[in-house]
Amino acid sequence: MVLLKCPLPCHVKEESQSYSNHLQSESSTSSSISSQPSLPSVTSLTQSSSASSHHQLINTLKGHSSQISSLTLHGKFLYTGSSNSEIRAWDRDHFAHQTSGNTNSQLVALSNGAVKSLVILGDKLFSAHQDHKIRVWKIEINIPNQKFKCIAILPTLHDRFSKLFSPKNYVAVRRHKKCTWVHHVDTVSALAISRDGSLLYSASWDRSFKIWRTLDFKCLESVGNAHEDAINALVLSNDGFVYTGSADKKIKVWKKQLGDKKHKFLGILEKHKSAVNALAISTDGSVLYSGACDRSILVWEKDNNLIKNGNGGMNMVLVGALRGHTKAILCLAVVEDLVCSGSADNSVRIWRRGTDKSYSCLAVFEGHRRPIKCLAGAVDCNSSVHNGGSETQTGSSYLVYSGSLDCDIKVWKIWVPLL
Q: Low complexity compositional bias: what residue ranges (predicted)?
């Protein structure tokens, strides 16, 4: 098994390129994968790296017959969702070694509407769909060829019925049409679970986000007209902040303060010049990453001075951009001090945050034939030493999973030396 040395540094291509294809069945308000001009006014944080990382493609997973639109890791399994409504489970132990064309997956769920997002809490799998619904599945992975049981569809029948008869529960969803506030009325694009597991957050192209209680799936709150256009991404910090990214080019900050009944709007992080497609947040919540059609990944960091002055809402400041992709950024993932980005240029890039808060591009993963739509990453506990010829080096090994519109999932391994 040979690890490939990553070419360094990663250079930015300045030529403007256009990618005119749009995701299948998506509306005009959804995030486009067309490339738009970068942000020259934002300082680049990318520097050359003196340390040499090594990476390789260890597997290509084939089993889906349509575009991969979402994936998530849970224990020893990788769960993937596709545009033809399939959810599949893959045993990660079966593709830990280098093989090709692995089809060892189990079809665990089939429903209506493309699967846009997947999150897991205990023995429950939550899936967001293009048919405006959120589905809850009971995980039964130890029974071969047994599909998961759908135990709830959100909003639940009880939620819908209880809101049916009071006019105050109705909101305008379009001209001359109203609906109860518990309903999403367009594609549900993103899901997130609160730190304590008690709440599920959902974001939609209907410009709203909602909060659900995971105990009984009741809709507790709906923030309507949260943006001026479709919401494409939502992430939560461990200290209670909610960040939403939208096709209106804005990232908005929300929080439910102690004693409040509802989330309050706290401010806008505004620098992107095109649709915001992806958000990711560091484990400690101190760094927010945003990716957009402008080909840039913007880095926002908490400013302690703003926090001390009592401006808890706008506690993030823009510190710079990560550049290297030549087309729109479609997805982001964070693993320890690594940031993974997927793009419409068919590549995945791996960035590492240094102790001086600068970033280096460690690797460029190429092999997909179409845009990268979803990413996940994990520490590879089986490898921390790299044998480079006569030298043995200590570092960390990671596995990165990429899902693409080419219907494939690729498994990559990257070894990173200690800083």
A: 23-46
DSSP 144-205: TTPPPEEEEEESPHHHHHHTSS-GGGEEEEETTEEEETT---S-EEEEEE-TTSSEEEEEET
Q: Is the Cα dihedral 401, 27, 276, 263 positive or negative? A: negative
Please, what's the b/e burial string for 164-190 (b: 16 or more CB within 10 A of its CB; e: otherwise)?
eeeeeeebebeeeeebbbbbbebbbbb
User: Is residue 324 within 8 Å of 46, Cβ to Cβ?
Assistant: yes
H-type helices in 326-390, by residue range?
none
**Distance, CA of 348 to CA of 366 (rounded, Å):** 7
pTM reported for the whole predicted model: 0.89
State the residue for tokens 């030493």. Answer: 385
- The candidate with the shortest Cα–Cα distance to 241, out of 339, 333, 312, 332, is 312
Contacts of 111 (CB under 8 A, 6+ apart): 85, 127, 129, 135, 150
Closest CA to 55 of 391, 404, 380, 381: 380
Strands (E), 303-390: 316-322, 329-335, 338-343, 347-353, 359-366, 372-379, 385-388
- Distance, in Å, from the CA atom of 161 to the CA atom of 159, rounded to the nearest integer, reads 6
Name the more confident of 39 and 184. 184
Count of residues in the chain: 419
Contact 55, 70 (CB under 8 A): no
pLDDT of residue 390: 52
Structure tokens at 163: 């809101």
Assess contact for 314 and 305: CB atoms under 8 A. no
In the 3-class helix/strand/coil scheme, how is 115-139 assigned residue by residue? EEEEEEECCEEEEEECCCCEEEEEC
E strand or H helix at 302: strand 297-302
Residue 57 burial (C-beta neighbours within 10 Å; 0-12, 13-18, 19+): middle
CA 154: distance to chain centroid? 21
* AA identity, residue 6: C
Q: Supply the pLDDT for residue 24.
A: 37
Beta bridge partners of 264: 255
Edge-to-edge strands of the sheet including 199-204?
188-193, 199-204, 209-213, 219-223
Q: What is the pLDDT of residues 126-143, one digit of tens each?
A: 999 999 999 999 998 777
d(CA 388, CA 2): 10
Q: In whole angstroms, what is the distance from residue 179 CA to residue 219 CA?
A: 14
